[in-house]
Write a structure and sequence with these properties.
With 197 residues, the protein is an alpha+beta fold. The chain has 3 helices and 9 strands; from the N terminus they run ββαααβββββββ. It is 23% helix and 23% strand. Belongs to the N-acylglucosamine 2-epimerase family.
Length: 197
Amino acid sequence: GGFYDAGYYFKDKTRITIIKDTKNWWAQAEGLNTLLLMADAYPKDSLQYFNLFQKQWQYIDKYIIDHEHGEWYMGGLDKAPDMKTAQKGQIWKASYHQFRALSNIVQRLRPDKTAPTVPRNFKSSVIKNTLVLTWDKATDNRNLVGYNLYQNGKRIGFTPRTSFAVPRVGQPKGNKYTLKAVDYQGNQSAVSNVVSI
């Protein structure tokens, strides 16, 4: 299992020639994510990407994840056993690749199809020539990320807070404001009540 660090296809050879047989942590993370994307896109492909995804996960679980102290080793212990005592974080290694890959995988394996609740108590006030819109926090079954704000049906902004300031300079009267809560998966709530200015 695992993806090798470097190899070439030469025109006079029928198989890939591996020139560096170590297995870097980030290539394993990105490969895992890619195999699941390919499995979703091509479920009937003869390469059986989902089976390869499972095999890749088994490799990562066995040779890349430090189950005792946490984090991922910089390389697979099958090819570089000295990685067991090497630093796990340095200028070229942080938790970016594995977090991104694993969060994408969780979303694909357990997709969130439930929208957040509608934000309630949507109202306005004016402070120093600025329209301030406020509302009660919505809830979500997983991860609420914030709110999309609309003016006359057109999206004018996003905020993770429960308030939003709209400068009134040059704003015509008769605007209608609404908002929708949005979660990490991109599900949006139904529209809030309308605030007319």
